[in-house]
Amino acid sequence: MDRRPIRGRPTRGVAAVLAAGALAAGAVLFGTTTAYADTLFTDTFDDGDATGWAKSGGSWSVVTDGSPAYRQSGTSSDARALAGQSTWTDYAVQARVKPTAYAAANRHVGVIARAQSSSSYYALVATAGGGVQLVRRSGGDPVVLGSAAGGVVVGTWSTLKLEAVGSSLRGYLNGALVVQATDSAFAAGRAGLATSYASATFDDVAVATASGAPPTGTPTGGPTPTPSLPPTEPPTDPGKPIGFASVNALGQNGTTGGAGGPTVTVDTAAELLTAIATPGPLTVKVSGMIALPGPMHDVSSDKTIVGVGASSGVTGGGFNVGLPVSNVTSPPADAVHNVIIRNLNFRNTPDDAINVQMFSHHVWIDHNDLSAGYDGLIDIKRGSSYVTVSWNHTHHHTKNMLLGHDDSNAAQDTGYLRVTYHHNWFDRTPQRNPRVRFGDPVHVFNNYYVYNTDAGVACQLNSGCVVEGNYFEDVEVPWTVSYSGSRGRMVARNNVLVGTSEPGDAGGTVTEPSTFYPYQLTDPASVKAVVTAGAGTGKIGF
């Protein structure tokens, strides 16, 4: 087998990694186990074209969909795009896939392995009904070799991986083995992408040689991860936060939101605003996009606000978690606390999308998609603390996340603003990723930064930040302790830099986050794949 890497014009970041020898390409894309020996092909489409792809049917083009991606926009035919060599035998092909439309109920989109031609191949596909199938196509209609429930949602990114090793075929969805079959029709062939009377967008395509016995156990639709790719979330209960929101402090035992109270489903602004202001524990399920009268609306203590599916949320207004602004310098007895905000889309907010203020504590902001606001997307200020911001996708916005709002607010903020930021996707958000004043310690780990043109983590005004295990790609200044002339303290370790020669400045001592809570790092080389597959809405079970 020819194992020379093939790329459709690699991005500057990928080329920099290879040239520096900092990370093996196989480790970046497929984890660090011996299951994958060599990377054969990668394409992120960041160069703006699709060099190396042979197209058949459909209408293929490179578009911007959060980042550059490869889209097939027609729904009136079968369409394939193939790459690589016909001599490839045992390998895995992986891609992020977002279905956008199906012409009929029996149509699909997915990834191809061992393609003999544009009409003879194996494929792992997501169906119009949200399931997944292993199929063999030999010139006619696809033959289903195996199927499973999947939960792939139109308009939402999922990661599909198809392994072909000998006669064994194994299909993975978001890192979990969900379907497998045995078939010997095709021994070798190219990799590719497929749509059958459907449209879809594809990104982060990778092919690597595979070897070894299949994993033990029966494939299911549950969270069992493939041993060769990291799971989409670290091994923790997805219904509970890690980080500072999990800490017992200020009279609150972790963050549980509306647990123990009733659940209501809302689909109008009046219903939503009434629910979030209701005293006592309450889970508020938001159905659809709700237009709020703006700008900010108060959330009371002991609330879980969660979106239904991938497309629910709010537009035209945001949430304020906190009491009205005052000059008090210690937490008042009625400070807002124990609030969870998950799985919501925030759009077109005339102020902040989420504002946490006035000594609010134990707040968990998780798996949201936030963009196109006026001020901050997630701002935390005025003595608030014990907050976790996790698995959010922020994009199409400039002033992203502020921690501490003003240089003159030391009296309220010193000793507070303890926040954890993990597994967030800072997607072309120029600044405040976050910008930190006074907070100590602030833990920033396992986030994916891409094309932030001002700064990644800015730690100033005697704040203390631990920045570890993050993946910085084409970031002008990944981290700094001297932003706007006022210095902070920072420990920066085990971060991946791609397309960046100067990381910025760090120094000083910071209290270790492990003093407060346990946590497990995702392999930094895998953070890009893990975060882009797992961050945002539609990734948790609501």
UniProtKB/TrEMBL annotation:
Tell me a Gene Ontology molecular-function term this record carries. lyase activity
- Specify the Pectate lyase domain's residue ranges: 259-478
InterPro entries, from UniProt?
A: AL/BT2_dom, ConA-like_dom_sf, Pec_lyase, Pectin_lyas_fold, Pectin_lyase_fold/virulence, PEL
Answer yes or no on keyword Cell membrane. Answer: no
For the keyword Repeat, the answer is no
Biased composition (Pro residues) is annotated at 222-238
Q: Where in the cell is it found?
A: Secreted
Q: Name one Pfam family in it.
A: Pectate_lyase_4
Annotated stretches, region: Disordered: 210-262
Q: Where is the signal peptide?
A: 1-37
Which keywords are on file for this protein? Carbohydrate metabolism, Lyase, Polysaccharide degradation, Secreted, Signal
Family from the record? Belongs to the polysaccharide lyase 1 family.
Protein name as annotated: Pectate lyase
**Organism whose genome encodes this protein:** Micromonospora cathayae
Lineage runs: Bacteria, Bacillati, Actinomycetota, Actinomycetes, Micromonosporales
